[in-house]
Amino acid sequence: MTWIGDTRKTLNYIESHLAEDITIAGVAKHVCASESHLQRIFGIVTGFTLAEYIRLRRLSVAGQELSGGGRKVLDTALKYGYECVKMEPTILYKYFQKPLAIDAMSTDIVNM
Questions:
Q1: What is 47-90 written as a DSSP string?
Q2: What's the whole-model pTM score?
Q3: Domain segments of the chain as ranges
Q4: Confidence label for 41 from pLDDT (cuts 50, 70 and 90)
Q5: Least packed by Cβ within 10 Å: which of 33, 51, 90, 101?
């Protein structure tokens, strides 16, 4: 396979398994590549490490679900593998480039 083909197959696998436990070994097995080769090629093509991409995608999808309303913060956090749901505002700012506040009583996300 080509670098782009391997990366596309990797991205498709990650997207279809975001709410599950994703391991680098599992992804490498799916795309028939060694872990080191997969991580090196993925980083060259996307500019992200595999772990960083998975973490950012989960944060992005969780944020979209929460902003749509009707979902509790705890349920969404657990769905995407975040066992510790106490998130500091600086962590949210780091990923979304703007401070966000999560109102635990109403589960609304408010742009500050």
A1: SS-HHHHHHHHHHHHHHHHHHTSS--HHHHHHHTT-S-----HH
A2: 0.68
A3: 1-47, 58-112
A4: very high
A5: 90
